[in-house]
Input
Amino acid sequence: QVQLVESGGRLVQAGGSLRLSCAASGRTSSNYVMGWFRQAPGKEREFVAAISWSGGNTHYADSAKGRFTISRDNAKNTVYLQMNSLKPEDTAVYYCAADPRGIVSVWGSQYLYWGQGTQVTVSS
Output
């Protein structure tokens, strides 16, 4: 019912910035929560950030606090992840996710819809 497409991933140098976008299409609703997760080679998927439909409720992983900012533009059905002060350990495939139940969650299992990911590589 909902399709998510990430974009913006690329190779950047440590200390640089990058903005990821996730465009949603299909039967979206005003209650959808959007989140960003990432997965590095050999590691499990981990939570990065999440945001409520209104944008009034956000949550960040400790690794993202102070460096990353999640936002959304509902008129464009798009969620963003602004990443600053990037580190090599931020290298991963970044996925956006959506859930219609309206609860901001750090658990990937809580999200019903997922994009296919965009690769972010941070060089030292």
Observations:
- The chain has a mean pLDDT of 95.
- The radius of gyration is 13 Å.
- Residues 95 and 117 are 4 Å apart (CA to CA).
- DSSP finds no helices and eleven strands in the chain.
